[in-house]
């Protein structure tokens, strides 16, 4: 199927499919001589997985990590997605019931306790999401979080200050080019800090982390607090750094 046919079938935009192709999330199996993207049945199966995970709140970079893992099993994923969606449906039903009872309470038709006013709200992490991440996904982020939790309060404060200093330095450079000497010197500080304090990041993993900064809104929001557009700037600088380092390593 051509890209427009896939877009019409699924109900998403051609632009979205282009984006998925550009970031390596869904690359069509064929490209015609005239440049048309041709999607296979396998592509459609992957797209279904992508959209299920996206509906369940997974960031695109995490989805990419999961579905391209050698251990990824589509039937197993569908089973897990079904559990997650059922749990989500139960929670939504509870919240709808809470809204209806609150409306009756406002009319004076029923009495409502404070506990009942918040029935259905759930702020804990979804256990099925954690299961999916452990099986196929974001292990580097999990590893980093585990390592940070082992630090003392003083160590965490010192690390946070060091990280913030690099963020601020990069924020001052973000109006320039990510490939500039100044940006690359500073992004190397970030690479060195991560490897010294957080975990072992290969050049590819560092590049992937940079992509996560723009794919995951939580990262983007936190990083852009130091300056609008910083997450995008860092992502590009990290990609340039990783690719240059790999080229130099290959030349040696």
Automatic annotation (TrEMBL):
Keyword set, alphabetical order: Activator, DNA-binding, Transcription, Transcription regulation
SMART domains tied to this protein: HTH_MERR
InterPro entries per UniProt: DNA-bd_dom_put_sf, MerR-type_HTH_dom, MerR_fam, TipA-like_antibiotic-bd, TipAS_dom
Record organism: Heyndrickxia ginsengihumi
The protein, known as: MerR family transcriptional regulator
One GO molecular-function entry: DNA binding
Domain of life: Bacteria
One Pfam family per UniProt: TipAS
Phylogenetic classification of the source organism: Bacteria, Bacillati, Bacillota, Bacilli, Bacillales
CDD domains: HTH_TipAL-Mta
Boundaries of every HTH merR-type domain copy: 1-69
Signal peptide: none
